[in-house]
Design brief:
about 300 residues; Purple Acid Phosphatase, chain A, domain 2; five-stranded mixed beta sheet; about 35% helix
Length: about 300
């Protein structure tokens, strides 16, 4: 991929459709700086935020660094430049579900999305609707989210030590998932359920997030076939789905792909839910007046 610096919006790489999910802004594991770099390198026709972008489950600790706010500012900046931005709600940002149908300029909030892509139908939704624990034991899911966040912090510390020792980084959560049979079965069942329902509804693509497992795979049943896609996450995999000229590809962020100007170490911003939404409204209101500086 071509290395880019801070360029004007019109000079960015054009992509017809970009889907990202599971960013988990407000958690320690979120790779917000990397996501900002990626967003500043592209000019999508449509940007779909497929759930769990803001992790409202973790807001009790009031952790929201400036880099996390920059992600939201970049998204709002895109909308102000004419990019169609669709925020699809997930389980970690389920508080936004009551705003489904909300539209403000090029920005909208939905619970699911149907798109026509070159005479093919794409069904896009987060995927938590197929999570049994979400439906019947939400407290267990929330407890798991806290444990996952703690594991990511531990993983970061472990990789820091490994990097200093000249050894290869590891992903503790991936090792756990791959070694626990129930986790593997859950992922396979999730993918199969999504595919079966999409085939029954005669969709050509089914696009999900939720399980943090990036994937593009053709799946079939006795009733037909569908392309299953999962955008992964920006906690471990740092992936996005890109659609261009009738083709899907799984983008994976690599540090050497995109070079951006180094910025000073950030300070933490302590925000409540109310303060965060107030900040967002300020950004939305000001986005049409002036273009934010990327210097």
């Amino acid at each position: 991929m071509k290395t880019t610096k801070n360029c004007s919006f019109s000079e960015r790489r054009y992509v017809e459709l970009v889907v990202i999910s599971d960013v988990h802004l407000g958690t320690y594991g979120c790779h917000a700086r990397e996501l900002v770099n990626y967003l500043r390198s592209i000019r999508p026709g449509t940007l779909v935020l497929n759930g769990d972008i803001i992790d409202m489950w973790q807001f009790s600790k009031k952790y929201f660094p400036k880099s996390h706010m920059k992600v939201l500012k970049e998204i709002i900046h895109m909308a102000s430049k004419g990019v169609e931005v669709v925020y699809i709600t997930g389980n970690h940002d389920e508080l936004l579900r009551k705003f489904a149908g909300f539209n403000l300029g090029k920005l909208s909030i939905q619970n699911k999305l149907l798109l026509d892509l070159d005479d093919k139908k794409a069904w896009i939704f987060h995927g938590d609707i197929f999570d049994v624990t979400m439906q019947h034991a939400k407290w267990l899911t929330r407890l798991g989210a806290i444990g996952y966040d703690s594991l990511i912090v531990l993983n970061a510390a472990t990789n820091f030590i490994l990097e200093k020792a000249g050894r290869e980084k590891i992903s503790l959560s991936k090792k756990v998932k791959s070694s626990v049979k129930s986790a593997v079965k859950y992922i396979n069942r999730f993918e199969q359920t999504c595919a079966e329902i999409a085939i029954n509804n005669q969709y050509d693509y089914v696009v999900c997030g939720h399980i943090h497992q990036p994937e593009i795979r053709d799946m079939s049943t006795n009733d037909g076939a569908v392309t299953y896609l999962n955008s992964g996450d920006w906690v471990e995999n740092l992936t996005a789905l890109e659609y261009q000229d009738g083709n899907w590809q799984l983008y994976q962020y690599k540090e050497h792909y995109i070079k951006q100007k180094e910025e000073p170490e950030e300070e933490y911003v302590l925000l409540s839910n109310k303060e965060l939404f107030a900040r967002l409204l300020e950004e939305i209101n000001s986005s049409g007046k002036s273009e934010p500086s990327h210097a």
